[in-house]
Design a protein that fits this description.
- 52% of the residues lie in helices and 14% in strands.
- The chain is built from ten helices and six strands; from the N terminus they run βαβαβαβαβαβααααα.
- α7 (156-166) packs across α10 (201-210).
- The radius of gyration is 17 Å and the shape is globular.
Length: 217
């Protein structure tokens, strides 16, 4: 049996490109694909593929949150994060969530096969455009109890509400997506803004951009 790879990206052209590359390998097969974080979780939980190659910024639920939820259900699945960003914060959040690889989109076509093989074999993979020596620094920070992201002060539900707010969803739309009442959504919204010490939506958008939580690219 080949390495089962699941592709998650909100751009069909990216999924199609990666699919063509991976299918040139006799020992790799595509187990499925999805265009948003919620659908990715739903499909991956049902199949538990060997590797998920996932965009860090997807609609409704970003790749970082999706990674956390996938690994709870499928701890043996290895996740490679795709991103347009090479910032320390994005890389830190990806590995902290449990990802085993990190690829910049501009080089993913050249490195995705190596990355899939590496994480499938139990190794971490950091794309060549980011200095390999930096990986140890990232992992040291991830393993340090003293290093905490502001996001860790928020519950899973608060982080979900945060992303949907930043994507421009109304309280009623968020309530529908998350199967909550509008009043409960308003409570989560107030609570997360209080925890982050953020007073307005523009500041919330800026925070989300800095932490890779939005699909704005």
């Amino acid at each position: 049996m080949g390495i089962k790879v699941f592709l998650a990206d909100d751009h069909a052209v990216v999924r199609d490109g990666l699919k063509l590359i991976l299918l040139t390998q006799e020992d790799m097969e595509i187990s499925g694909e999805a265009a948003d974080g919620r659908r990715t979780i739903e499909m991956v939980k049902g199949a538990c593929p060997d590797v998920v190659v996932m965009d860090i910024a997807m609609p409704e639920l970003n790749g970082i949150e999706a990674t956390r939820q996938i690994l709870k259900a499928c701890p043996s699945t290895q996740i490679i994060m795709l991103s347009m960003h090479a910032s320390n914060e994005h890389i830190f959040q990806a590995f902290r969530a449990g990802a085993r690889g990190y690829l910049l989109k501009e080089s993913a076509g050249k490195e995705v096969i190596q990355a899939v093989r590496a994480v499938y074999a139990g190794r971490r993979y950091l794309c060549r455009q980011i200095a390999e020596t930096e990986l140890e620094d990232y992992m040291a920070g991830i393993n340090s109890a003293s290093v905490r992201s502001p996001l860790e002060h928020l519950s899973l539900r608060e982080r979900e509400v945060l992303q949907l707010i930043v994507e421009g969803k109304s309280n009623s739309e968020i309530a529908s997506i998350l199967s909550l009442s509008v009043k409960t959504v308003e409570t989560y919204k107030s609570r997360l803004m209080y925890k982050l010490n953020i007073k307005d939506i523009p500041s919330l958008v800026k925070f989300a951009l800095q932490h890779g939580l939005t699909t704005l690219k």
